[in-house]
## 1
Amino acid sequence: APNPASEAFTIQWSGNDNVTFELFDLMGKKVELNTIVNTPFDQTFSIAGLQSGVYVIRAIGANWSSRIIKK
């Protein structure tokens, strides 16, 4: 199920490799790119500046994605 958020959301990541997260709107436009080098970690992404709607975040090379609802 999508995760509702208004200002930010946090990902708890337990992988062992560096990971790059991409955040897309539903039209496929990339709105944020963030590379994390210290794993495992809790990473908070600010979405306060984005329009309300549904976004998809994915971890490149990790076969993981999630839907985010911006309130």
## 2
Amino acid sequence: VKPAVINMSVPRVLVVEDESLVALDICKSLKRFGYEPIGPVSSAEAAIATAKRITKSGNKRKNRRTTNGA
């Protein structure tokens, strides 16, 4: 799994779907409508872990901006 580059100005959606073709179709549709799909992941456990990882990295970015005066 490669690390994702996160664009903070684009709304992100965590895609949780156990059917791979459906998940890919959802991701494709989200991109077409201007969203950044995260995932897809196929289980609740993977979704929770992904959400925690994304939230943790988002908080680090937010803290850096605050401490740098931005």
## 3
Amino acid sequence: DPVAGAVLAINPSTAYRMLSDFVKLNKGDYVLQNAANSAVGRCVIQLNGSGNQGLFPQSAILGWFPYSHS
């Protein structure tokens, strides 16, 4: 499927551009992302979770709440 194949190139480059083109991130900064279970979210984690950039990815997934307010 050509569309599925295109995603393999688009998602990593989108994650990289989000981390490098919009705001200056410094070593030790935290990166908070929503919808972290998407393919782009996973790429953000892979790009920074290894410690190569010195960033700490923090991810939120819609519908998952660690604390109950009831």
## 4
Amino acid sequence: ANEAYCTHYLSIHTNGSTGRASGVEVFYRDEADKAFGRELVLPSLVSATGLRSRGLKHESESVRKRLAVFG
């Protein structure tokens, strides 16, 4: 991501469970990404998909504990 000069780094997840885990959530790395996710990305995802918002979460809350790009 750094080599590609990315300005924001987010991870978008959709959850297909019929229980509490159903919906869309966005993981972020830093405060700039959090603001971008909160103001634009998550509301747009909810609007476009009709899925329930599961909110914004810091990368440390993900299963992997850190966001990564696999190539």
